[in-house]
Design brief:
The complex is a heterodimer. Chain A has two domains: 264 residues, Alpha/Beta hydrolase fold, catalytic domain (Rossmann fold); 97 residues, Rna Polymerase Sigma Factor, Chain: A, CATH 1.10.1740.110. Helix content of chain A is 36%, strand content 16%. Chain A contains eleven helices and 14 strands. In chain A, the strands form four sheets. In chain A, strands 1-4-8-5-11-12-13-14 form an eight-stranded mixed β-sheet, sandwiched between helices. Chain A starts with a helix and ends with a helix. By secondary structure, chain B is α/β, with parallel strands linked by helices. Chain B is built from eight helices and eight strands. The two termini of chain B are 29 Å apart. Classes of the chains: A alpha/beta, B alpha/beta. The interface between A and B is medium-sized, with 23 and 21 residues.
Chain lengths: 377, 198
């Protein structure tokens, strides 16, 4: 656990009023940075992670020993070029990688807070992370970026702080979580809450965690991150280390084995209660409703330059929902670029090696950064 | 840069908002944003070209004029540019209506089907014309609605659209088109560039 001690974290002392009405203060926000903040402090990019991500976007995650969740995109010479930019990524509140969440030990009981943790929203997550700007004394970020739930945070960030980022990259996301997405999240939560080890969220020993429920939640969710075509091409009806069907309920098919594996590795790195809280935050996200049904109003004061990206095979956050954001921005004459990237990798495309996607972001950021600097001279 | 773009950029006043429809690789957009103080946006149907534009940091959205113009509010741009794509739409009439709704002024360029080489091809060979500006065969052309400079003139007059200025482009030769020389210019121009107003 020595790695946990090396984890970077700020203590947010001032009170944060949450959307649920409760107030929190003196809570930790864990973060990681890549690259260097320049003297002018104009090269910082704040990256927001998705549902099961954490602050370790690039390189090797010191806790899981696996590659960071956005290692394809963040690093030296990559889309978010850390030779050039200072990338900051924090674990969201409600998360389980060092930030204040249901797994945080309550000093009064010496047990995890569990379901006594307040219900948080995307807005709360963003407001908590805003403290990082003060901490690094950054007047204005060069960019905010993120995919999926990270994209929702991008939208909320620009809405809350219209002049704190020059560029915004919401990727494969939505301004209003759909019924279908709420349904899938509910399926995952029910899997966790049906596990007898969940104990109303007050489990506290590693051996009695609701791992089975969490694994099923992950398996179901994982299917939604891929496309039918992608699954068919990768697995088809291939059998798992056997030449014939076994007429039983073992994993006969490779896809079954794959999903079981995804479920089993997930429980080692993720907390079931965090899964409940973060999926809830996504379900509650409705930026359009926050502005009385007019999404354009969310961005009315912004000078931020938007670049919105969707993927052809993403049926979880389809192009149409991403385009709604483009339409809302065009309605107020905001600076917006949009492209739908062709790929069969589904919603997960933003995390994978999709060269068109990665190179377009890289060029967009590099050109925009030098244009801004030229204009300043 | 193409002569056509030079003519178009001369039409555009400083500190204006411009929408380039069918902006392609963004060459005109780049020129305008570097050489004039303008706020320029693009709409392009080809994913490959949109990616090229975004790689240059240009504010371009993937979409097409027949479906995606409706998201822009009335008179939200000082100029809307449509370069050599009018003939490719299912309904050029509706597109022009929408351009005039979105833009205070509209710049439309048309490849002139009235050019003498085009006329001669059909007259002498009895074949659909294939020229530098119209390089397609009849069976693979994206151009559904070809017209001549004269046709477009008539169209604007019938619709009550105000033609501010018309420029003829023949190779690198730029000249003005007026009512008096229209018949002749319709014969010798490869391109017609129109500055319109509702």
């Amino acid at each position: 656990m020595s790695n946990l001690n090396k984890m970077k974290s700020i203590l947010i002392e001032k009170t944060l009023k949450l959307d649920c009405g409760k107030e929190i203060s003196n809570f930790p926000l864990a973060y990681e940075t890549y690259g260097n903040l320049n003297e002018k402090k104009d090269n910082a990019i704040l990256i927001f992670h998705a549902l099961t991500g954490d602050q370790y976007a690039s390189g090797i995650n010191p806790i899981t020993k696996k590659e960071g969740w956005w290692n394809y995109a963040v690093g030296p010479g990559k889309s978010f070029d850390t030779d050039k930019f200072f990338v900051i990524c924090a674990n969201v509140i409600g998360g389980c990688m060092g930030s204040y969440g249901p797994g945080t030990i309550d000093p009064l009981t010496n047990k995890p807070i569990g379901t006594n943790f307040p219900v948080i929203t995307i807005n709360d997550m963003v407001n908590a992370q805003y403290n990082l700007l003060d901490y690094f004394k950054i007047e204005k970020l060069f960019a905010v970026a993120g995919g999926s739930m990270g994209g929702m945070q991008v939208l909320q960030f620009v809405s809350n702080f219209p002049n704190k980022a020059r560029v915004a990259l919401p990727i494969a996301c939505t301004a209003s979580h759909s019924a279908q997405n709420i349904a899938f999240n509910e399926l995952g939560r029910q899997a966790i809450m049906s596990d007898s080890n969940w104990k109303e969220g007050l489990y506290d020993e590693k051996s009695t965690n609701p791992d089975k429920g969490l694994a099923v939640a992950r398996m179901a969710a994982h299917i939604t991150y891929l496309s039918k075509q992608g699954l068919q091409e990768k697995f088809g009806r291939n059998l798992q280390e056997r030449s014939d069907l076994k007429f039983g309920f073992d994993a006969d098919f490779q896809i079954e084995s794959y999903l079981r594996y995804q479920g089993s590795v997930f429980v080692d790195r993720f907390d079931a209660n965090s899964y409940l809280y973060i999926t809830r935050a996504m379900d509650y996200f409705d930026l359009t409703k926050q502005f009385n049904g007019n999404l354009s109003k969310a961005f009315k004061d912004t000078k931020t330059k938007f670049f919105i990206i969707s993927f052809t095979s993403d049926w979880l956050y389809p192009t149409s929902e991403n385009k709604d954001i483009v339409i809302a921005l065009n309605a107020i004459g905001a600076d917006v670029g949009f492209v739908e990237i062709k790929t069969d990798k589904g919603h997960d495309s933003f995390l994978l090696d999709v060269p068109d996607f990665l190179s377009t972001i890289k060029n967009y950021l590099n050109t925009t950064y030098s244009n801004i600097n030229e204009r300043r001279i | 840069m193409k002569e056509e773009f030079k003519v178009i950029s001369k039409f555009i006043e400083e500190r204006s908002r411009v929408l380039d429809i069918g902006c392609g690789d963004g060459i005109l957009m780049e020129y305008l944003s570097k050489n004039k103080v303008v706020d320029v946006r693009g709409l392009e149907i080809s994913k490959e070209k949109v990616k090229k534009c975004l790689s240059k940091g240009l504010a371009v959205i993937e979409g097409d004029a027949e479906n995606d113009l409706k998201q822009f509010p009335d008179l939200s741009f000082d100029y809307v540019i449509l370069s050599q794509t009018l003939q490719a739409f299912m309904s050029p009439e509706k597109v022009i209506e929408n351009l005039l709704r979105v833009g205070k002024k509209v710049i439309v360029t048309i490849p002139n089907f009235g050019h003498w080489k085009v006329r001669l091809d059909l007259l002498l060979k009895g074949e659909m014309p294939v020229t530098k500006n119209l390089p397609y065969q009849w069976y693979n052309t994206p151009n559904l609605h070809m017209c001549t400079i004269q046709d477009f003139y008539n169209f604007c007059n019938n619709k009550g659209i105000n033609i501010y200025k018309t420029i003829s482009l023949n190779g690198e030769k730029i000249s003005n088109i007026s009512n008096s020389n229209l018949k002749y210019k319709n014969l010798i121009s490869e391109l017609g560039i129109f500055l319109l107003e509702k």
